[in-house]
Specification:
By secondary structure, the protein is an alpha+beta fold. The protein is built from 3 helices and 5 strands, in the order αββααβββ.
Length: 120
């Protein structure tokens, strides 16, 4: 019983670390946008594929742990549902890098989940 609780804690810790740090910052470039003549900034949209893969693996492990018959935790199906809600709302899947603009030293990173947008 304790080993299943430890696995759930580790899985939630992985998702929490991905939320706090932004996960793996590399991915596939979705598009690049150049600004107008006045602000001349460049915005690069990146899909964080590695974050999606890690989140799906964590969710699959959570579901697999919940399906084990030795797992006697009463609310075991709430853990994968909570993980899915956490992934949809807080795990970053798109990163937007904005360079330039009115100030040449301007550099902004914007992370976006399926629901929310976070500025870092």
């Amino acid at each position: 019983m304790k080993k299943y609780k430890a696995v759930y804690v580790i899985l939630f810790a992985i998702l929490l670390i991905m939320f706090i740090t932004g996960g793996i910052p590399f991915g596939s470039i979705l598009r690049e946008e150049k600004g107008t003549a006045m602000d001349a900034g460049v915005a690069t949209w990146i899909v964080l594929i590695y974050n999606l893969i890690i989140a799906l693996i964590v969710l699959a492990v959570g579901i697999a742990i919940s399906c084990i018959k030795d797992n006697k935790i009463r609310i075991k199906w709430l853990f994968p549902i909570g993980m899915l809600a956490f992934i949809i709302t807080l795990v970053p899947v798109i990163k937007v890098i904005v360079v330039g603009g009115f100030s040449p030293n301007q550099y902004n990173e914007i992370y976006s989940s399926f629901v929310f947008t976070f500025y870092k």
